[in-house]
Design goal:
Largest sheet: none
Number of strands: 0
Shape: rod-shaped
Structural class: mainly alpha
Number of helices: 3
Length: about 60
């Protein structure tokens, strides 16, 4: 009886095996792509971003 209770306790305490979901990976990739597009949009259209003329910047 003691052996069976120990085996039962071990099975109850063992961590559950998680099944990887392809939808989770797809969601993470979509989130990363959306963040990249938004960051690029902020750099192009954001306030305070100016592109100086290369001749003015490199002038001594």
């Amino acid at each position: 009886m003691a052996d069976s209770s120990i085996i039962r306790a071990r099975t109850l305490l063992s961590p559950a095996v998680a099944k990887p979901s392809p939808y989770a990976a797809l969601g993470a990739a979509a989130l990363a792509a959306m963040a990249a597009v938004l960051m690029a949009g902020v750099m192009v259209l954001g306030p305070g971003v100016r592109f100086e003329d290369p001749a003015v910047v490199s002038a001594p």
